Amino acid sequence: MKIQINQWLSERGLEISDEKTRIVHIKDGFDFLGFNLRHYEVKGEDGILRGKLLIKPQKSKVMDFCKRVGQTIDSMKTRTPEQVIRKIEPLLRGFANYYRGVCSKETYEYISYRLWWYLWRWAKRRHPNKDKKWVKDKYFRTEYKKGSKKDWRFYYEKKRPERQKNSTHVVRYSSGPNCKTCQSKGNLLPRRP
Fold it and tell me: How far apart (Å, rounded) are the C-alpha atoms in residues 104 and 178?
């Protein structure tokens, strides 16, 4: 297999580096540029097993991102909620944009949970003598989703002129579609070996 790939690449002026190249079976999966690619067996409607390639965010990259967000929030112990939102919002937006084209909904939900935990800890640390209900009412707004599911959103309300919004909040990225699937037509692939 490796010989065939080397021949195909040599026609195009390229070669495989033996130190960096690892050949694995697609069912075992592999990580590439922060993504995990893996082939899963799925039972179809007719009962026949079929394969499906799922591309998901790499687990180690997700954990590193969560740690980075947690460290950022921990370093802002004395900041206002608005400053915290302005600091973490670009991090969340960048992560969500990078992984938006793959199966990321479960990852976004996990990050939303971790983010909620970091913000809850931050809010409780600011008011150690207040009870949980007071802290929740001050920093979190309850929103109801379909199926009467409660969703707490971290927000900050500030008095501003009438024409401007009077509150800012952290955007949730877990509300998107579960998985994007697109099929390519085999005969349309460029430079097919």
Answer: 7
pTM: 0.76
Domain residue ranges of the chain, discontinuous segments joined by +: 59-169
Instruction: List beta partners, residue 39.
Output: 53
Residue pointed to by tokens 């992560």: 95
Amino acid at 84: V
pLDDT (tens digit per residue) in 131-187: 999 998 888 887 766 665 567 788 777 666 665 555 566 666 655 555 555 554 455
Q: How far apart are CA 156 and CA 139, in angstroms?
A: 6
Please report which residue ranges of the chain form alpha helices under DSSP H.
Answer: 2-10, 59-74, 81-98, 105-126, 132-139
Strand partners, 52: 40
